[in-house]
């Protein structure tokens, strides 16, 4: 995503915190961009280039995108990932994107996840991601042995969080994490998609409705409760009919 240079480019609306990032307009909210357009391009290209070998036709020479994909991946790792798995910049979004897009070397994945958890805990179990990283955040945590941390983010109800919006009576997803401030005054767009992408995690992890094949022709039910959750239910209208799966957990 790119707007006028005076505004932002890259991952918009990543929260910032005092002492963590400079120039915050509303202390924790208006982080603006958390990566330059060059970094975003390096991140996104490998996720597309890796599919080159699966396409039915190839632009000559065959496999060129796959080769370039590996070169970009190597360059990203050498430039932005330290030997201890710490990212540059050391922000939640940096770890989420790199882990989600398979840019972290296997030997450093555990360390990168630990750094991500550290940043979340330093921010009192608050997220610190914007448009490009929030959709991946809970997935990255639950897929890397940090299910309880993901639930801690989900259950958070102070700014910035999803439940803060619920507490304020939201029926849509806001652009700003404080679309309606503590003073009750609304501002900015109150109908944006990105932060609502946590719905994917709610359906697939909390409710456990996973697509076994594309389009949910085959389904796998695998709820992963945590955070004190004892019951959940969800419905999904697929091309093959409605999928419903309630579950309860009675013995811990």
Task: Characterise the protein shown here.
This protein is mainly α. It has a domain at 1-160 and 178-190: Glycosyltransferase (Alpha/alpha barrel), CATH 1.50.10.10. Helices cover 35% and strands 7% of the residues. It is built from 8 helices and 6 strands. The strands form 3 sheets. It has a two-stranded antiparallel ribbon. It has a two-stranded antiparallel ribbon with strand order 3-6. Strands 4-5 form a two-stranded antiparallel sheet. A hairpin with a 2-residue loop joins β4 (235-238) and β5 (241-244). α1 (37-49) crosses α2 (64-80), α3 (92-100) packs across α5 and α5 (134-143) packs antiparallel against α6 (147-155). The longest helix is centred in the first third of the chain and has 17 residues, at 64-80. The protein starts with 36 loop residues before the first helix and ends with a strand. The model is unreliable at 1-10 and 17-32 (pLDDT under 50).
> What is the string of SSEs from the N terminus onward?
HHHHHHHHEEEEEE
Tally of contiguous helical segments: 8
Strand sequence of the main sheet, in spatial order? 1-2
Structural class: mainly alpha
How far is it from the N-terminal to the C-terminal residue, by CA?
44 Å
CATH fold call of the domain at 1-160 and 178-190: Glycosyltransferase
Rg value: 19 Å
What's the CATH class of the domain at 1-160 and 178-190, please?
Mainly Alpha
- Main beta sheet strand tally, sense and closure: 2 strands, antiparallel
The strand count comes to 6
In the CATH hierarchy, the architecture of the domain at 1-160 and 178-190 is Alpha/alpha barrel
């Amino acid at each position: 995503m790119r707007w006028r240079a005076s505004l932002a480019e890259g991952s918009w609306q990543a929260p910032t915190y005092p002492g963590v990032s400079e120039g915050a307009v509303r202390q924790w909210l208006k982080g603006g961009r958390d990566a330059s357009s060059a970094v975003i391009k390096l991140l996104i290209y490998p996720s597309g280039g890796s599919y080159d070998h699966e396409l039915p036709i190839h632009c000559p020479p065959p496999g060129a995108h796959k080769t370039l994909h590996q070169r970009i991946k190597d360059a990203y790792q050498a430039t932005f990932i330290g030997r201890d798995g710490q990212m540059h910049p050391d922000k939640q979004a940096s770890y989420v994107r790199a882990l989600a897009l398979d840019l972290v070397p296997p030997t450093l994945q555990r360390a990168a996840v630990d750094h991500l958890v550290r940043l979340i805990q330093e921010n009192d179990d608050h997220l610190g991601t914007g448009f490009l990283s929030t959709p991946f955040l809970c997935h990255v945590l639950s897929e890397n042995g940090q299910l309880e941390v993901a639930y801690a983010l989900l259950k958070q109800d102070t700014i910035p969080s999803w439940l803060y919006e619920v507490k304020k009576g939201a029926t849509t997803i806001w652009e700003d994490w404080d679309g309606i401030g503590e003073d009750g005054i609304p501002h900015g767009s109150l109908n944006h998609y990105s932060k609502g992408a946590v719905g994917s995690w709610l359906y697939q992890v909390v409710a456990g409705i996973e697509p076994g094949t594309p389009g949910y022709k085959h389904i796998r039910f695998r709820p992963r409760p945590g955070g004190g959750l004892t019951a959940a239910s969800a419905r999904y209208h697929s091309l093959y009919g409605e999928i419903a799966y309630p579950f309860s957990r009675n013995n811990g």
